[in-house]
Amino acid sequence: MKVLFLILLSISTLFSSFEDGREVFVQKCATCHKEYISLNLIKENFFEKNNSLLNLKAPSANMIVWAMMDSSKKIGDPNEPDFQQIQIEKFLKDYLENPDRFNSICDENVLGYYDNKDSMKGKLSEDDYTNLSYYFLEYKDNFKEEITQKKPFLSPEDEEKYLKIANKENKKIIVYATSKTCFFCKRMDKEVFPKGEVKTLLDKNYIFIEVDMDNVSLPFNLQKEYKKITPSFFFVDKNATFSKQYVGSWTLEDFTKILQENK
Q: Can you give the residue ranges of the Cytochrome c domain (predicted)?
């Protein structure tokens, strides 16, 4: 039975593709949803301008893809793309035909800016849902932002200097990915890093390296781990071995625990 299912799934895949899904998106979704908005512009719009910059009434396609693939509400397992496609298709059909804010995968911090969504029941066919699922699943591979190659934050020589200090002082390294437009970064800069036990733990156990992601790439081969979310915190040992990544903003209490667990 499982073999038959996989055969049928493979046949379905032959007739579904990113381009088929993109056509559905353009024809039936693009009146409300933009296809792409840069992450920095999104952050500035919501966290600094209260949506006055873009006046978005619905998430862009790349925001939906991030929610599906990388957020805490992500759908399915990326290591099993065939089954992930089925789960995405089911979610799309269920949500678009019975929209419910409490069942949304959107970031709760921006959900309040969006209009209530009308049901799409009868407006999308079964093939449309299948093709849309492939569009979102394959979005990252087919719709790539034009990226200017950024210079590395540290040269190999500078990286070696930091590692020598880490070995000499028996400390780990924290690489802090931030940006000038990151509201939550600014809040942590003010309310977390200089306070109480966090400051003590940082000074005693860590070398803290702040990297502005608007201008440069991460050191210690961490760029491949970066999920394009600020703030992000990367823990590296004194041998330049990456151990953990913590994505997002943290309270004073939670960040203290993170530092204690990794020292």
A: 16-140
Sign of the dihedral defined by the CA atoms of residues 199, 202, 208, 212, in that order: negative
Half-sphere exposure of 195 (CA within 13 A, CB side): 13
The total number of residues shown for the chain amounts to 263
CA dihedral angle for residue 76, residue 82, residue 87, residue 92, rounded to 10 degrees: 120
Can you give the pTM of this predicted structure? 0.56
- Asked if 256 and 201 touch (Cβ cutoff 8 Å), the reply is yes
Q: Are strands 172-178 and 242-247 parallel, antiparallel or unpaired?
A: unpaired
Q: What is the CATH number of the domain that holds 231?
A: 3.40.30.10
Q: Which domain holds residue 232?
A: 151-262
Which residue positions in the chain have pLDDT lower than 70? Answer: 1-16, 143-149
